[in-house]
Amino acid sequence: MPKRRASVENTAAGAAALDEARGAPSARGAPFLRTIHRRPDTEERFPFTVPAIRSLGSLELRGPVTFFVGENGSGKSTLLEAIAAAAGLPAVGSADLALDQTLTAQRTLGDALSLVWSPRTTRGFFLRAEDFFGFTKRLAVMRAELLARLAEIEGEYADRSDYAKGLAMGPVRASLGALEERYGADLDANSHGQSFLKLFQSRFVPNGLYLLDEPESPLSPQSQLALMAMMGEMLARGAQFIVATHSPILLAFPGATIYSFDRTPVEAVPYDELDHVVLTREFLAAPERYVRRLL
Q1: What CATH superfamily is the domain 2-131+205-294?
Q2: Where is average pLDDT lowest: 11-15, 150-154, 181-185, 234-238?
Q3: C-alpha distances in Å from residue 78, one per residue of 47, 158, 214
Q4: Listing from the earlier edge strand, what are the strands of the sheet with 33-38?
Q5: d(Cα 3, Cα 11) in Å, to the nearest integer?
Q6: 100 in the Ramachandran plot: left (φ > 0), alpha (ψ -120 to 50) or beta?
Q7: What residue segments make up the domains of the chain, in order of their start?
Q8: Cα angle at 124 between 240 and 66, to 5 degrees?
Q9: pLDDT value of residue 81
Q10: Nearest one of 60, 119, 46, 86 to 211, comparing CA atoms
Q11: pTM given for the model
């Protein structure tokens, strides 16, 4: 019962944050990145062959929250990755954005983009949900290396004074303490969704641009509401979000602009007219009808 009660309270907190965001003035969280232009070219290779990318001219970011939605392969994640490369944002993942070999084509697209800022921000990050495990492994390796170094110093200074040993251990302990203060002693001790939310919250700084690629992947519906609540809180501190997603829950964020990559060219679509939302509603209204046809 206590666990259920906490779940209900979390949902209520998420709803309250959304109510606050819905009633807030639009000036709060005014966007930094305002327009994305793709310079004309004659490229005949991926990702320029993707219809949504090939037909892309300018994309206006009308507010602090913008969603990219579309079927797999529609180009939404590809454009988001290219924006991250063009903006020079740090990546939260298993490899740095500039060194990630899986993003070579996206960096090429990024070179073809012009970003219009007002004003420019260098804060924020790019996060692909699929890279989350890679990032937690990097943290685990860093923590293990720091602990191993402390053990080495313990042996090296066995015959020295506690003062000398403390001086030698000081920088290592400081690095370990900073790591654990920011991310916790062990992200793996939490569920995948809990760790994801904890990581997201720990990396947030005010006035940042946050590019999220399918953040719903590790999150239950309950945790998606928690993420929405975090986003609402961050808008009050000057954040801007561009999110590629399939989630009807996240897409319901109040006042968000939603661009459909299933349209050519890409165009803004009202929430109630999105294919993802229409299909989900129809399925939930009569799941047996869909299951009967499928099975």
Answers
A1: P-loop containing nucleotide triphosphate hydrolases (3.40.50.300)
A2: 11-15
A3: 7, 54, 12
A4: 58-60, 33-38, 113-117
A5: 13
A6: beta
A7: 2-131+205-294
A8: 25
A9: 92
A10: 86
A11: 0.72
